[in-house]
Amino acid sequence: MRDVAIIGAGMIPFGRRDEDTLMDMLAYASLKALDDAGLGDKSVDAVYVGNMGGGMLQRQTAIASSLVDRLSLIPAAAETVENGPASGGSAVKNGLLAVASGYYDYVLVVGGEKMREVTGWRATDFVATMTHPQAEYPYGITLPGMAGMFTRLYMEKYGVTREHLLAVSLKNQEMGALNPYAHVEMALDREGIFDSPHAIVNNPTVADPLHLYDLCPVSDGAAALVLCPLEIAKKLVKPPVLIAGFGQATDTQTLQERDDPTDLKAVTLAAQKAFEMAKLKPGDIHVAELHDAFTILEIAESEHVGFFKKGEGGKAAAAGKTRLGGQIPINVSGGLKARGHPVGATGVAQVVDIVFQLRHELPKNRQVKNAENGLTVNFGGFGNNVLAFVLRRVQP
Amino acid sequence: MPVDMELEAVLRPPQIPMVPYPPKVITLANGKKMVVRQASREDVPSILKSVHPCLFIERDYYDIVSARLYGELLAWYRYRVKSEYCLIGQIDSYLVGVVNGRLEDEKVGMSYHTLAIDRGLRIGSHLFAAKMEYHMDYLGQESVLIVAESPIGFRRWMIEYPLEKTNIPHELGGGDSYRLTRDIYFAAKPRLVVGDRPVPQDLLDEAMMEIKFADDDTIRERIAGLKGR
Amino acid sequence: MKKEIAITAYKCKNCGKIHYPYHDRCLACKGRDFEMVKPQGDVRLLTFTRIYNLPWGFDQRYLTIGIAEFENGVRAMGQINVDESVPLETGMTMKPSWEPVRVQAGENVYGLKFTPIA
Fold it and tell me: Do A142 and C58 touch (CB under 8 A)?
């Protein structure tokens, strides 16, 4: 198995992109990554496209086949990868294995989603289709609803409070306001969304105990990477980023069948495998992108990957330990909360943002100083299919 | 053209006396303070300057809402509509939202339109609620008829209050009206109607002195929110 | 007339683990022989939420959903029959029933509902 490096990374601003089709967004992000890799007028050997809703929302299937044609990448091998909100992470994994195996040298990985083509009710329903068809979906459960039930249990077991969730929300929106690719470009004010009695309208309950600003927005967008063997990458100009380790694990589909629903076993296992492969420990990570579709998840994942003990993640967030400049900066990009969550794109965008960090390319107000090792966690379903990647800067 | 007051007496509809809406101030999600106050007829030309660029934005039905609002405000300004009122939201004097409605009679009101010029801050929700507050708490009405052109409006009003369906036709030929009753209003009030009174004097003076409006491009960008490549 | 709760749970004949929903192989021992079990008795509420942004197909303002455990160990999700003004707590005992939980293509879809015992 060969070492695999990332030599190209690109994304388009996430948000409401009425003027672009799904294929437009996938193409724009892909071209950015290809140009970044110096392959703007060249081919690749394989393409993996992460997308969850093309069939349902755009009535479009075989998306990867369409993309290679549009981008003049034929006769490259191509596949669309669907793994719920972890479609992006799975696309990265498949691209990684394709290069590591020795079968393919240059691989393009792109994730994209166009969720705002439909009304909010239909987007909510689309996302809910990942729940169990008989035991969950018919009841009108939504993913925020699953998160609400999970949050209630987490609050009861570990004493997480709304203040802890608020700390995550404010931090991520503040950082998102600095990120030109982020969906939400507005920093929130504590008074407006929490302290003031007017917060009941500004920040209403969506799935109690979660409120509007505990949730990520519904977004359109795409992000892309170019992978190749490390040996080739070393000869290129930009410092490559090594995918030092990855892990993936699954769990029961329904929350009720987990012995302890607050125990995100798939997150723990996926992260453990990634660290083992990379021969690193949680303490070696300098910057992380954790899947914060809901603020509670950033807290829970920060514990399950090993940054903090169980029950300490909320307090750590409130104490500023996960801010830029803190003990372990988490979601410096703004996270899903502010960068946005076009579901198929997220897993790829998380890696793109870590690549920018490890290349030391970002402006001072967003760059983690001397970042060498990064971690991403892409959460599929409600914790039943999770991918983790450990990335390392390769010294030039 | 000089106004013939004798002819005006024939052309102008009667007006039901309305107590003024007491201004209030609301803290928004980004910490900014929005003053909600009643506009006077003299304010209409300034307001129309902000409504005008919205006439050409298809996104979220801004075009039809602004077109109808423009006509309603002009009708009020030119004394051609019964008992209309207009409330506006201002942040640092800038107009960020407009709502209007009228009284059909002492007991029944009709909500006209809601236009939010700054988005992502629930301005539409706050101003619509202010309208309902005016009808119910200050004008003492029994019910308000409401229609929605946009799915966002439908979600925020028909579902969130929630409103009663009726068979009463829409004033301008759209779908049937919904109704807000006093019972529904007072049950929903704690979670939908907020604001502090009185407005601190400096904020109120600033809002009353001038209605600032952003230039057309800024307004278009705020509403249409186009993202670059 | 009250409808019978049309949920079947599956008890592994090898190790006794109870499953709902259906699995072809036991989650604990990979066994394939199951005894069909009906959920028995009242339920204890394990967790719940009240959802205000509902998916397409629901016209109400909010929906209260919970996960509960039957007296014989079967766990399932259901809608909770309760007004938002009634406080709920995990651990509460509720009565389960089988009622329409949504309408799809003009037809009632039946499912579990939980009603707090006064």
Answer: no
